[in-house]
Specification:
The protein is mainly beta. It has one helix and 14 strands; from the N terminus they run ββββββββαββββββ. It has a single domain, classed as Lipoprotein localisation LolA/LolB/LppX (outer membrane lipoprotein receptor (LolB), chain A), CATH 2.50.20.10. It is globular and about 50 Å long. The two termini are 13 Å apart.
Length: 227
């Protein structure tokens, strides 16, 4: 398994296995723009700026982080299994990793980087691009959501070991508006600015050019590596 991520971000996760050969790329992908708010997240800080995510299940993902001039980093992650590229667009350096093994999938856990000790229970398995499915699989309780912009919403509430998580959707759809979790460390919310299915663009999942790469040794499927 290969982990790519950092604090106050999310980590794409390989299953530790190479995908099976398929007939071709998918026809569509999901474009997601989110921002993080909550306890310990200073408004206007780099952690609070929107990031753009492209997901084309089950083997493609692209994560575009905003630039952080303070530390000289603008991270771009591109995954087209079995290849994964994590690059800094400001210094033109990056890493390349190859997932090896048998048939497998890519996962984009939403809150796992906030929860290295797995205190959030079933919420750790919820992924970007599959928010509704994740809450449904965890047996979240459906209830009427808040009125937002004068429109009704649906809510799914999931009990956590030390709190709860709530997914708010546009009424009658699976399109997220926000995902909030509350535990002993306070409350955090991902606000969804955009969430749309669009035609698949293979150019977004190509190897980023003009980057000096460092190769990450192949994963043996038993240990985690980050970059």
């Amino acid at each position: 398994m290969i982990l790519l991520g950092a604090a106050v971000a999310f980590a794409p996760v390989f299953s530790g296995q190479t995908p099976a050969v398929e007939s071709g790329p998918p026809s569509t992908m999901t474009r997601i723009v989110v921002r993080l708010v909550g306890d310990g997240i200073k408004p206007g800080s780099h952690a609070a700026l929107p990031k753009t995510i492209y997901v084309a299940d089950p083997h493609y993902a692209r994560i575009e982080d905003p630039p952080d001039a303070r530390v000289g980093v603008q991270k771009l992650t591109v995954i087209a299994e079995p290849d994964a590229y994590s690059v800094n667009l400001l210094d033109h350096k990056g890493t390349h990793a190859v997932d090896t093994g048998g048939e497998g999938d890519l996962h984009l856990p939403i809150v796992l980087p906030f929860d290295p000790k797995h205190r959030l229970g079933a919420l750790d398995a919820v992924q970007f691009g599959q928010e509704f499915d994740g809450f449904q699989a965890a047996k979240a309780v459906h209830e009427a959501g808040p009125i937002i912009n004068s429109k009704p919403t649906d809510a799914y509430v999931l009990s956590l070991p030390n709190g709860k998580a709530t997914l708010v959707l546009k009424a009658g759809t699976h399109v997220p508006i926000k995902l909030t979790w509350v535990d002993g460390d306070g409350a955090h919310t991902y606000e969804y600015i955009e969430y749309n299915d669009v035609p698949f663009d293979p150019a977004l999942f190509k190897k980023p050019e003009n980057i000096q790469y460092r190769e990450i040794p192949p994963d043996d499927g038993h240990s985690d590596r980050g970059c």
